[in-house]
Amino acid sequence: MLALTSPLGWALPPRAELLPGADPSDWLLIIEADGERQSSELEITPLLRQFAVGRVTMSRVTTPVQQLTRWQIPLHQSGSPANTGVVIAPLKLGNEFTPSLTLPMRQASAAALPQPAVPSPLEMQASLDHQGPLYPGQPVIYRLTLWLPTSMQNPGLSELSSTHFTIRRLGSDEWIAPAQAGLPGRLTRSWLVQAKAAGLWHIDSPRLQGQLIQQGSNPQRLSARAAPLAIRVDKAPATAVASRLTLTQRLEPGTTAEVGEPLIRILTLTMENGDGSQLQLAQLMAHQLPTGVLAHPDGEQQQERYREGKLLFEREWRQTLVAENSGKYQLPPIAVPWFSTQSGRIEQASLPAIDLTVLATARPQPDSQPPQIPRPESLWWVLLALALRAVQRHGPRWYAFYRLQRALARRQPEASRKALIHWATLRWQVPYYQLGQLPGAGHNRISNALGELERACFSPPSSGEPIEWCALAHTLRAHETAGIAHLISLLAYRGSRSRRHAP
């Protein structure tokens, strides 16, 4: 039972594949295994007895529904290329073995004849859209351009991956059809990458696989990568790095209030082409306050979007200010140093001081008439008004949560996935497009259940273990309004049960 519930409970055995190289004596051995493996787990000693082994590269590929480790091993056959039938023995990989492979037949005689140079049927080029120094957290565009022949079938391009960079797919692919028959078309795919630390890092390009259909011959399998890029990331200054940074603040309802009346202070940070997590102004807002003014955090929200070639980040902090005594107060100015990539020097984003006027509370004159006790009818009207306001404010989100609970109760994977993404977008005011974004956003700790839901949506019905629908529904209730979430869940499950028992 522990093996079935673990992430490797449904892992497939290691896979191995042989791809032909440019020379008849060259081969590329590709080995893939599910999960995160170490380089020392693969023993390549048997290969050294049969081939001249080149540089072994290992990479890890992580997707919302799969995590695997890939080895690429260049092999050179020291004997005659016509020596086919050579068997590559299974290699030990941890506690498992890779399948054995046999070298297929290749046209050695034709390769031995002198032939004119034939241009490559496809070309790949990787580039980085950046000039000047690069610092950790600074976003740049990694662009991969491919020239593909029209006779290529089933092309497949892997994702860009690196442990030294945060990588996100940028937009959609751009395809330009060939101008005339016989010429290749151009495919462009882009990623937004941000270095995690300073240093000299190499980033390998995605791998392209496909079949080239040629007249009078069998389909030819192709595999190619663009040349790797060496990216130097300079040591970041002590301040945040961005191309532009601005600060604004406002007070609601104004700069004048009575003793005990709360004022809402809203501070907004706008950053362009930078990492917003490098700045935390909540503590600065709480400590730089005059004596006699109490501050309470009132939450924060942020959004990040890529538009017109710029990564725009905006974060808003809110706090409640309450003065204990009447008088004049002054909120001190705020200065935040940051490094500008445009000017190449440290600049400051500053806010001026704000004067507050706190008035004494106007005491009501004593009245000879006894205080009137509100009638019960008026209390009911007040409660009804509060309930209507809550429904109007949270109604769309609660309805989305009801649809999510109903889909889970009916055990509908695809409907549950769409309803969960829609509800999470309304709940945290951040646009989500796939389930894999939710654990990384820090809103919940249900990554295992989300992985089961993804597999239920995209895997064959017979694969994997059944999903724990009730456990997932119960876990999600903790992220919605207490009481309301329980009531919505009961309504959803009662409706689903009545539908199942209906004649």
From TrEMBL:
This protein's name: DUF7939 domain-containing protein
Q: Which InterPro entries match?
A: BatD, DUF7939
Please state every residue range assigned to the domain named DUF7939: 400-477
